[in-house]
């Protein structure tokens, strides 16, 4: 196939879904001729003119209309220009889409694509990680692919799934992350992956932080430490079995995330390890998140705000030396 990027995978998955299933359509702001804010739908309007639809600037109306279409048997993919803006549609997702099967027995096969996370110079309104907010509510699956192959295959599986799925795609990975193909190892949608095996400590993470964790592990390998990196892939439901098996091997765990520290995925990981795997631990479970402040605009401040390989190394050294 040649070199393909993370956003190539997202575009190709949508193309193949539109081609293979007449029930699939794409709905969002500027997703048509313009090709989306990040060009994730570029070229799809010309090939599927009736099923790649531009919307007014109303996230609430977009998701509400998609819920109605899903009730009638369609499989909508809704693109938010930025994950941050999806809060305007929160009521539609958590009070309507997520509860509809429970209330009526009718499935809502709606996929909400959220361009997530920070890039230099994006500031507080275009950089947030929203996965914990959606994971709080029952009735939805929340996934966060960290590889090119997962971006392709997990998006296809999300659209084929019969319940609402929040698909958190990281903007920083769009054109930076590359692979030879869209090949995948065939893991089930909700199963975590051991990205890097190790025996001295476990890092449990997801999305773009997987790559930062691997960089940190490579630096610590120079000192003889073998760090295991677990890529959650799916944060709701969370693969507790893979986490516990890794902690059983290493005895130490660092839960790592780019999101804000209060609550969230890393808190859930630590809570589960402490309550279900306390006997496995040789050190207290640790967490590392972004700072508990709005996300700064200046690139240097942004780098100081989120975890980096350097801060991950520091956190792991404290854990290893406990």
TrEMBL record:
Thylakoid in keyword set: no
Domain Transketolase-like pyrimidine-binding: 4-176
Known cofactor(s): thiamine diphosphate
Keyword terms of this UniProt record: Oxidoreductase, Thiamine pyrophosphate
GO molecular function: oxidoreductase activity
Pfam family, one: Transket_pyr
Superkingdom in the source lineage: Bacteria
UniProt name for this protein: 2-oxoisovalerate dehydrogenase subunit beta
Organism: Roseibacillus persicicus
């Amino acid at each position: 196939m040649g070199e393909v990027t993370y956003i190539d995978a997202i575009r190709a998955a949508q193309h193949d879904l539109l081609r293979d299933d007449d029930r699939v359509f794409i709905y969002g702001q500027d997703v048509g001729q313009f090709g989306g804010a990040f060009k994730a739908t570029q070229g799809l309007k010309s090939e599927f003119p009736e099923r790649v639809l531009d919307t007014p600037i109303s996230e609430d109306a977009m998701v509400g209309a998609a819920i109605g279409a899903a009730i009638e048997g369609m499989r909508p993919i809704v693109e938010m220009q930025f994950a941050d803006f999806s809060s305007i549609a929160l009521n539609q997702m958590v009070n309507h889409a997520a509860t509809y099967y429970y209330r009526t027995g009718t499935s809502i096969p709606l996929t909400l694509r959220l361009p997530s996370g920070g890039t230099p110079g994006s500031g507080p309104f275009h950089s947030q990680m929203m996965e914990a907010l959606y994971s709080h509510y029952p009735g939805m699956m929340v996934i966060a692919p960290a590889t090119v192959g997962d971006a392709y295959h997990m998006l296809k599986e999300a659209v084929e799934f019969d319940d609402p799925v929040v698909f958190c795609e990281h903007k920083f990975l769009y054109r930076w992350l590359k692979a030879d193909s869209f090949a995948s190892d065939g893991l089930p949608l909700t199963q975590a992956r051991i990205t890097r095996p190790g025996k001295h400590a476990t890092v449990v993470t997801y999305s773009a932080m997987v790559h930062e964790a691997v960089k940190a592990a490579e630096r610590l390998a120079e000192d003889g430490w073998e760090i295991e990196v677990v890529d959650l892939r799916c944060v709701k439901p969370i693969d507790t079995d893979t986490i516990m098996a890794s902690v059983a091997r290493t005895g130490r765990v660092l839960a790592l995330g780019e999101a804000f520290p209060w609550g969230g995925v890393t808190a859930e990981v630590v809570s589960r390890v402490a309550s279900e795997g306390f006997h496995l631990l040789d050190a207290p479970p640790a967490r590392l998140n972004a700072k508990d402040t709005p996300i700064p605009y200046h690139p240097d401040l942004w780098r100081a705000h989120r975890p980096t390989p350097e801060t991950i190394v520091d956190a792991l050294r404290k854990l290893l030396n406990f």
